[in-house]
Amino acid sequence: MPGLLGYHDGRAVAWVSLGPRGDYAKLERSAVMKRVDDQPARAADDSMWFGTATMFERAGFVEVARRKRMRPVMRRAVRGRAAGSG
Predict the structure, then answer these.
(1) How many of the other CB atoms lie within 10 Å of CB of 80?
(2) pLDDT at 86
(3) 3-state secondary structure (DSSP) of residue 62
(4) In the chain, how long is the greatest CA-to-CA distance?
(5) What are the backbone angles phi and psi of residue 45, rounded to the nearest 5°?
(6) For the chain, what is the domain count?
(7) 41: domain range?
(8) Is 78 helix (H, G, I), strand (E, B) or coil?
(9) What's the CA angle centered on 49, arms 15 and 35, to 5 degrees?
(10) Interior CA angle at 67 toward 63 and 73, to 5°?
(11) 81 in a domain, yes or no?
(12) Comparing C-alpha atoms, which of 41, 29, 26 is closest to residue 73?
């Protein structure tokens, strides 16, 4: 399974797996991390990350779901080419 290792002082201290969301059925069963809706996330993998809600709000994101008090799900609409167009 593809993934990344995090190192500190030459020692592996963290690991994260990488892949399409559909490969991780556990996310769909999670009360917190399940899909908000059927809309695909049209973004490059390297731009999907966590941060504070206010940081995202300042960048034009809006809250689309909140399944736990401290875990908002933020989304920002972007204009551009449709997924798969070249």
Answers:
(1) 7
(2) 47
(3) strand
(4) 43
(5) -55, -35
(6) 1
(7) 3-75
(8) coil
(9) 100
(10) 30
(11) no
(12) 41
Q: Is the residue at 83 inside a domain?
A: no
Q: What residue has token string 């917190």?
A: 32
What confidence tier does 12 reach under pLDDT thresholds 50, 70, 90? very high
Question: What is the full DSSP assignment across 3-30?
Answer: EEEEEETTEEEEEEE-S-GGG-HHHHH-
Q: What's the pLDDT score for residue 49?
A: 65
- Is the residue at 57 inside a domain? yes
* Single-letter amino acid code for the residue at 26: K
Q: Which residues pair with 75 in a beta bridge?
A: 62
CA–CA separation, 7 vs 1, rounded Å?
19
* Residue of 19, 35, 39 lying closest to 27 (CA atoms): 35
User: Does any domain span residue 49?
Assistant: yes
Residue 40 exposure: Cα atoms within 13 Å on the Cβ side: 9
User: Residue 69 — very low, low, confident or very high, per pLDDT cuts 50/70/90?
Assistant: confident
